[in-house]
């Protein structure tokens, strides 16, 4: 990896991640996370 | 810098677990903040948790993906992957050092006076196995008769869930105690093993098991925030490696997969200014401080490594 490409890579990764984040948000994934996170996860506590 | 980091770790732990009403409600927080992931490993079933665990959320997406697809819902987890990618793209694995409550716990446990040991380095690849199999592939493909997967890492491994959710909820809700069986015993055993190991080995869970650290580490070489090593200034004393909370040897590659960017090597360990950081044109560290030059590098509290810790330098006993 040369110096020029190594300087561009972080911005590409950040842009790609931002696109993924916004796409997921538009798909309603934040609501899905909320639905799961407000229920007690029996698996997490070792009884489910 | 270490004092600042400890304060930031403590603040992140408090903010990730900011629901103080749980002793009265006897259950977990159910407000809107739970739609957001926290940057560290912090179980969302912890009664005090104010946000969602990214690894737990990711497994839920994968466990639900196939049945959701059949029902016309496509939820691939981009929201969580994008969130983690944003953090990773900016700072790589830095959240492990600065924002993870379970990382803080392990660092505190390592202060317990006990014989100190090191892992064989190949074990640090184990976390990628946990990420690939327990977080991604098993929840995606090992399905029940209804087409649902399960959260394998949460269910069979995660000691943070046992500590932050299992044990407190057993105390708060007596009905759960009656349901505790072999699985709970397994999870408590894993927790005990991790706690015991953390007193002996630096951050054992982070280095060998943590799938969140594994994910962030994929960004270490390509993140905006980067570490830099200046071989012309290095005096080959090995202080950076001896004092590193992850046992990393930065002179072998300052942006390797296990560096959590705690900056201890930059601001505390290196007496010669051979390590520095840079971020979008800003630079820090990398200059020998007057008070440190000429000092014999000291081994930090509890860091008594075996011979061979200073490896990789020419003539100092092998590499890694």
Entry keywords:
heterodimer, A: 48 residues, mainly alpha, B: 3-stranded antiparallel sheet
Your description of this structure?
The complex is a heterodimer of chains A (48) and B (320). With 48 residues, chain A is an all-alpha fold. Chain A has one domain. Chain A has helices at residues 3-26, 29-37, 42-45. The longest helix of chain A is centred in the N-terminal third of the chain and has 24 residues, at 3-26. The termini of chain A are far apart. The model of chain A has no long low-confidence stretch (mean pLDDT 88). By secondary structure, chain B is mainly alpha-helical. Chain B has two domains: 2-216, no CATH class; 224-310, no CATH class. Chain B has helices spanning 2-16, 22-25, 54-70, 78-91, 94-98, 101-109, 126-141, 152-156, 159-172, 174-179, 182-200, 204-208, 211-217, 239-243, 264-269, and strands at 225-229, 275-279, 282-285. Chain B has a three-stranded antiparallel beta sheet with strand order 1-2-3. In chain B, a hairpin with a 2-residue loop joins strand 2 (275-279) and strand 3. The longest helix of chain B is centred in the middle third of the chain and has 19 residues, at 182-200. Chain B is globular. The model of chain B is unreliable at 293-320 (pLDDT under 50). Classes of the chains: A mainly alpha (48), B mainly alpha (320). Chains A and B meet through helix 1, helix 2 and helix 3 of A and helix 3, helix 4, helix 9 and helix 11 of B.
User: If helices are DSSP runs of H or I spanning 4 or more residues, what is the number of helices of chain A?
Assistant: 3
- The SSE string of chain B, one letter per element, is HHHHHHHHHHHHHEHHEE
- Alpha carbon gyration radius of chain A: 18 Å
What structural category characterises the helix and strand content of chain B? mainly alpha
Overall 3D geometry of chain B? globular
Whole-number total of structural domains of chain A: 1
What's the total number of strands of chain A?
A: 0
């Amino acid at each position: 990896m040369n110096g020029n490409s190594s300087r561009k890579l972080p911005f590409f990764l950040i842009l790609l991640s931002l696109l993924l984040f916004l796409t997921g948000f538009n798909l309603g994934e934040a609501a899905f996370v909320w639905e799961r996170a407000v229920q007690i996860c029996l698996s997490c506590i070792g009884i489910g | 810098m270490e004092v600042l980091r400890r304060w930031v770790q403590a603040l992140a732990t408090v903010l990730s677990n900011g629901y103080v009403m749980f002793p009265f409600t006897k259950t977990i927080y159910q407000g809107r903040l739970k739609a957001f992931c926290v940057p560290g490993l912090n179980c969302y079933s912890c009664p005090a948790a104010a946000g969602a665990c990214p690894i737990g959320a990711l497994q839920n997406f994968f466990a639900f993906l196939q049945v959701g697809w059949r029902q016309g819902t496509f939820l691939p987890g981009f929201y969580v992957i994008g969130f983690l990618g944003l953090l990773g793209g900016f700072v790589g694995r830095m959240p492990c050092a600065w924002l993870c409550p379970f990382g803080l716990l392990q660092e505190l446990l390592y202060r317990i006076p006990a014989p100190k040991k090191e892992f064989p380095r190949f074990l640090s690849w184990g976390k990628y196995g946990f990420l690939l199999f327990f977080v991604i592939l098993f929840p995606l493909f090992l399905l029940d008769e209804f087409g649902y997967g399960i959260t394998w890492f949460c269910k069979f491994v995660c000691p943070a869930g046992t500590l932050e959710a299992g044990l407190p909820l057993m105390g708060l809700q007596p009905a759960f105690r009656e349901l505790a069986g072999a699985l709970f015993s397994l999870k408590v055993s894993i927790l005990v093993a991790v706690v015991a190991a953390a007193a002996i080995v630096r951050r054992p869970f982070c280095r060998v098991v943590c799938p969140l650290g594994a994910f962030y580490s994929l960004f270490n070489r390509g993140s905006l925030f980067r570490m830099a090593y200046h071989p012309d200034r290095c005096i080959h004393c090995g202080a950076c490696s001896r004092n590193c909370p992850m046992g990393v040897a930065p002179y072998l590659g300052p942006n390797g997969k296990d560096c959590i960017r705690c900056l201890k090597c930059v601001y505390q360990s290196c007496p010669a200014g051979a390590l520095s950081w840079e971020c979008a044109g800003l630079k820090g560290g990398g200059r020998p401080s007057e008070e440190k030059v000429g000092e014999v590098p000291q081994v930090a509290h509890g860091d008594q490594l075996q011979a061979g810790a200073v490896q990789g330098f020419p003539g100092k006993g092998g590499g890694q």
